[in-house]
């Protein structure tokens, strides 16, 4: 597969879906808003150059090294996974309707109840507020739980979300990791 999709491949990726990186009982299930066209064309989560998910994941201490999107399935061995609030790809997240986000919140709830991750980390405060009707939610741990799964909201790592710097993203990811490690000290004992 090419590492950069062509213009035609990007156009063909509109409304495509990408399979989740998921198995039961993960430590953290990271949840994007929805895949972009670049990700849809490659079939990989957070694949667009400039998306800061993979660097923030590493800088926050979740991975022993910076992973490439093509290594997304390696996350499962680390107790991590990836899904999205809305499965369909779009050029920009603002192309999703509020109804799609609310329906995505219901589907995500069912997925979480079935797979029982310890934490659900939603990447985008505005999407979280809309999908779950939490108008005053802030970045960080939430009072909401889905079954036994606790919810944490992280900033959207898209390069378009410029008011969150790489250092700020790393700090927020590290705060979640610190909570996970506090609750399960063996979490993240990966070779450095």
Automatic annotation (TrEMBL):
CDD domains: UDG-F2_TDG_MUG. One of its GO terms (molecular function) is hydrolase activity, acting on glycosyl bonds. Pfam families: UDG. Keywords: DNA damage, DNA repair, Glycosidase, Hydrolase, Isomerase. The keyword DNA repair applies. It comes from the Bacteria. Residues 19-179 form the Uracil-DNA glycosylase-like domain. Its EC number is 3.2.2.28. PANTHER family: G/T AND G/U MISMATCH-SPECIFIC DNA GLYCOSYLASE (PTHR12159), G_T MISMATCH-SPECIFIC THYMINE DNA GLYCOSYLASE (PTHR12159:SF9). This is G/U mismatch-specific DNA glycosylase.
């Amino acid at each position: 597969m090419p590492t950069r999709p062509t213009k035609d491949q990007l156009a063909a990726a509109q409304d495509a879906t990408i399979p989740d990186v998921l198995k039961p009982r993960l430590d953290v299930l990271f949840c994007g808003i929805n895949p972009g066209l670049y990700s849809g064309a490659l079939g990989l989560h957070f694949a667009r150059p400039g998306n800061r998910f993979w660097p923030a994941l590493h800088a926050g201490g979740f991975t022993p090294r910076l992973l490439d999107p093509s290594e997304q399935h390696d996350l499962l061995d680390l107790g991590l996974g990836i899904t999205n609030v809305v499965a369909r790809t779009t050029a920009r997240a603002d192309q999703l309707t509020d109804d799609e986000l609310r329906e995505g919140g219901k589907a995500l709830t069912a997925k979480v109840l079935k797979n029982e991750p310890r934490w659900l980390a939603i990447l985008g405060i505005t999407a979280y507020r809309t999908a779950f009707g939490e108008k005053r939610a802030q970045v960080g741990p939430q009072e909401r739980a889905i079954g036994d799964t606790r919810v944490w909201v992280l900033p959207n790592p898209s390069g378009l979300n410029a008011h969150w710097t790489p250092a700020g993203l790393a700090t927020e990811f590290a705060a979640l990791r610190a909570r996970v490690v506090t609750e399960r000290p063996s979490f993240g004992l990966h070779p450095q």
